[in-house]
Write a structure and sequence with these properties.
- A hairpin with a 4-residue loop joins strand 3 and strand 4.
- The chain has a seven-stranded antiparallel sheet with strand order 5-6-15-7-8-13-14.
- It is α+β, with helices and mostly antiparallel strands and 242 residues long.
């Protein structure tokens, strides 16, 4: 029940229910009266406290500090951030994305577009591939790898195939490539392809430490180690993923 000492505007907020005897002889709560929409306003710094008395249970509603309620409202309804704040956030996001792109493309993966015909029929002009830079952090370049390198002949980037590694002996006989005295089985070449070395000093060579002998798969249209010699490991950027 609502205490009689409660103000009228609070008494209207609670519904008193009486106990009546049902048809089975057991007590029950009387039906709720039809609710009425009421609006109440409080003045002052605190909401009033109220004590409700029910069947043997007393419930105390503690006073609510009104300034605290105002503070909650202020936090919810704080004004939007100024334009400068949004511009700063956008700038930081852009710098972060550019930095991530630079790190990934320089040290992990990068997209490459083939220009030229020196690696036909394996790679064709205009095709796109992924350059795997990350893999060479865990292993050395291997014979058979198709790699992107800084071309010693033109100081730009080129795509070539490694055919021999450090301390291997490379020679050319009867239109074929021999490594350590064994003829390479180059199934990736076009049929009837013959390989020769125009430069006499590179027709029979032992590869230096940390260096590699590279050739293009289109042997008649490729400037490679037959012209500019072996390539140092530092000039190899990564492996082409097909």
């Amino acid at each position: 029940m609502v205490p009689s000492s409660a103000p009228q505007y609070l008494r209207g907020m609670f519904i008193e229910r009486t106990v009546e005897t049902g048809s089975n002889g057991k007590p029950r709560l009387a039906p709720l009266p039809r609710p009425q929409n009421q609006t109440h306003h409080w003045e002052g710094d605190q909401f009033p406290s109220l004590s409700l008395q029910t069947t043997g249970v007393e419930v105390d509603l503690a006073p609510i500090n009104r300034p605290l309620a105002r503070d909650v409202v202020r936090r919810i309804e704080r004004p939007a951030a100024p334009l400068a704040h949004h511009l700063l956030v956008a700038l930081l996001l852009m710098v972060s994305m550019l930095g991530s792109y630079y790190l990934v493309s320089r040290y992990v993966f990068a997209a490459v577009v083939i220009k030229g015909r020196s690696m036909m029929p394996t790679l064709n002009d205009g095709e796109r591939y992924i350059l795997n830079r990350w893999v060479l952090n865990f292993r050395s370049p291997q014979p058979g790898d198709v790699v992107v390198l800084r071309d010693p002949g033109h100081d730009d980037l080129a795509v070539k195939r490694i055919v021999a590694g450090p301390f291997d002996r490379v020679s050319f006989h009867d239109g074929a490539v021999y490594v350590n005295g064994r003829k390479l089985n180059e199934t990736y070449l076009a049929p009837h392809t013959r390989t020769s070395a125009p430069e006499p000093k590179w027709r029979n060579v032992t590869v230096d430490k940390d260096c590699f002998f590279v050739l293009g798969d289109n042997r008649g249209n490729s400037e490679d180690s037959r012209f500019y010699g072996t390539v140092h490991r530092d000039r190899i950027l990564g492996v082409i993923e097909k």
